[in-house]
């Protein structure tokens, strides 16, 4: 995670960003810290990246890389405003515990990649259409040695895979079907017949932008109906208030890069 010390909305690269609406950076830090302590209280280790002035979107740490079984596929951001974030993430993984693979193609890390270790022997789901290039999906498969399933995103409001789909545990997902092309919806229905389906209101509340440890599902307070859906599916929803991060077009998942070793 990376604290939103320098968080602002000074450019708009997704439909949620309104450069005329002021951001409360102090409140953003407070809310972010509650997310961090919530994860710690659930028993997880959280490493914190140093925020860099001039990189206001760095709080969305999920976009900086994608790791599977100790191999890290680095990010290459679509927009120049975020390009330098990749450098900070790369530095974090310069540790013998990780193998780091430099990307050639545009991809925004966990924003567009999800890993389900228990589904079909270990499968990577990958989004494209707005940020990550399809060529990066093939590159990720080559670097990570797991099948990558390409899913086309069709709604600009849900520009990253993690705004429209989330892993609930090692083998199941939840998603908002209409965020995907008709063919991608068929693929998801085939691979995940027991998926928890979300609706537009859930997605607009950033209810799919969640982090799950397979038991606890951490999601923002606005996503009330979504919390009931995950509860009905047997998980424990845990709410965190993240109103400020929504102004940049993100929520819980965007703020957390998961480390898979
Ligand atoms: N303002 C950021 C962008 O548009 C938000 C990124 C949200 N992160 C995510 N994992 N969806 O790039």
From TrEMBL:
SUPFAM superfamilies: Pentein. NCBIfam families: DiMArgaseDdahMtb. This is Amidinotransferase. It comes from Paractinoplanes durhamensis. The lineage of its organism: Bacteria, Bacillati, Actinomycetota, Actinomycetes, Micromonosporales.
């Amino acid at each position: 995670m990376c604290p939103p010390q320098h968080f602002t909305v000074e450019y708009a690269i997704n439909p949620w960003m309104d450069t005329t609406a002021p951001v409360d950076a102090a409140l953003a830090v407070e809310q972010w810290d509650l997310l961090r302590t919530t994860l710690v209280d659930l028993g997880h280790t959280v490493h914190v990246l140093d925020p860099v002035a001039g990189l206001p979107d760095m709080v969305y740490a999920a976009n900086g890389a994608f790791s599977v079984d100790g191999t890290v596929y680095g990010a290459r951001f679509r927009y120049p405003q975020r390009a330098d974030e990749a450098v900070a993430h790369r530095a974090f993984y310069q540790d013998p515990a990780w193998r780091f693979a430099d990307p050639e193609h545009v991809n925004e890390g966990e924003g567009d990649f999800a890993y389900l270790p228990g589904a079909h022997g270990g499968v990577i789901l990958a989004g494209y259409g707005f940020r990550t290039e399809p060529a990066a999906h093939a590159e990720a498969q080559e670097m990570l040695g797991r099948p990558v399933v390409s899913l086309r995103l069709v709604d600009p409001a849900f520009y990253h895979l993690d705004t429209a789909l989330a892993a609930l545990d090692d083998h199941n997902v939840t998603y908002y079907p209409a965020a995907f092309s008709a063919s991608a919806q068929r693929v998801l229905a085939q691979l995940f017949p027991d998926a928890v389906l979300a609706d537009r209101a859930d997605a607009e509340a950033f209810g799919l932008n969640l982090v799950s440890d397979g038991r606890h599902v951490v999601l923002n307070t606005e996503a009330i109906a979504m919390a009931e859906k995950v509860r009905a599916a047997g998980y424990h929803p845990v709410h965190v208030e993240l109103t400020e991060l929504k102004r940049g077009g993100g929520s819980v998942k965007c703020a957390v890069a998961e480390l898979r070793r």
